Amino acid sequence: MDTASLPSYSVQELNHAIGHLLSRGFSPRFYLHATVSKSQLKNGHLWLTLTDGHASISAVIWASTLKKFTYRPNDQDGIEILGKLNFWENRANLVVQIIEMRPSISTVLRKFEVVRKLLIQEGLIDESRRRPLPNYPRNIAVLTSVPSSALADILRTAKERWPLTKVFIFPIPVQGDVASKITNVLANLVKHYRHFSIEAIVLARGGGSREDLMVFDNEELCRSFSSLPIPLITGLGHEDDLTVVDLVADHRSATPTAAIVDLLPSREIAKGHCLQMRHRLKDYFTWTIRKEKDLFNERLIKWKASSPLTLINRFKENLDKRSRLLLALSPESLFKRGFCIVTNQSSNAIRNCNDVEVADKLTIQLIDGYIESSVENIHCVR
């Protein structure tokens, strides 16, 4: 074996040369997409085996870094990391040191689907469970991070749309492994919501990646939100982002600002509705008063027609008519007009010339006395 032209190393020298090559020829920072196949906590450090199905490499999250992370990976979780290579020369051991880490979108969607299917089976996502939002809420609760741009937008929009609504702010963490903390805040809200007369709850978080919203896919947290005694409206992330909490909520809005727009009425629109209602009420009462007035006049006419005084006057008029008729037909009236009554000696009225004979004695009754006469001639014209 000819070794004259080849470099010669001791084990230490070889390992040192490899380490030197890695430090000079490889990027000091890099992104890595991988799946966790094994994870083990030792002395506060989290050791992982990362794989892509074809190859694997060891990785570590030092305890000082681990305590800053809000996400802890489980086996088979897809992750995206910012890391660097660590090479221990004494053992020629190569490890990826993880500096930053977040779940991959595939992991997020897989967990979302698992929880979604479970809650569907239990009926917690049924459309029939959704309650209507209050029309004009006087008091609402907002769960979001403080301070945040989402909160600023919510308060500004609430003041512009419906300043009569009082907003109670319940600060919560909105990213990472914080489901238990949110649940505790939620329990405190449920305990006191009657005291503050809270009518609806807004859960809000500003924009970010879908991975940042992973806490709102937590099963226990979703159960807590589904059991709220008052309506829940969500405004999480962007319009395309959908979490399990959105599915159990009574109403989902695209953004935090949209949630307030959907919940609170517009004072300009409300003003227009009030004016419309005013005109309708005016027209209704005008019509009602006119109708009642007509009905009153109709009843008054009927009452007058059937009143004792009206009946007496009517009877009096009728009596006067009959009296005038009787007077017109009375013998005295006829006498005044030149008529007379002729009777024979038997006091029978003479009606035609056939009732008398020549030499009959007749009595002629006038208005002021009687005339005794005797018939000398009879001339009948018929």
From TrEMBL:
GO terms for cellular component: cytoplasm; exodeoxyribonuclease VII complex. Residues 124-321 form the Exonuclease VII large subunit C-terminal domain. It is found in: Cytoplasm. InterPro entries: Exonuc_VII_L (IPR003753), Exonuc_VII_lsu_C (IPR020579), OB-fold_nuc-bd_dom (IPR025824). Its EC number is 3.1.11.6. One of its GO terms (molecular function) is nucleic acid binding. Residues 9-101 form the OB-fold nucleic acid binding domain. The keyword Glycoprotein does not apply. Signal peptide: none annotated. Belongs to the XseA family. HAMAP family: Exonuc_7_L. Heterooligomer composed of large and small subunits. This is Exodeoxyribonuclease 7 large subunit. The gene is xseA.
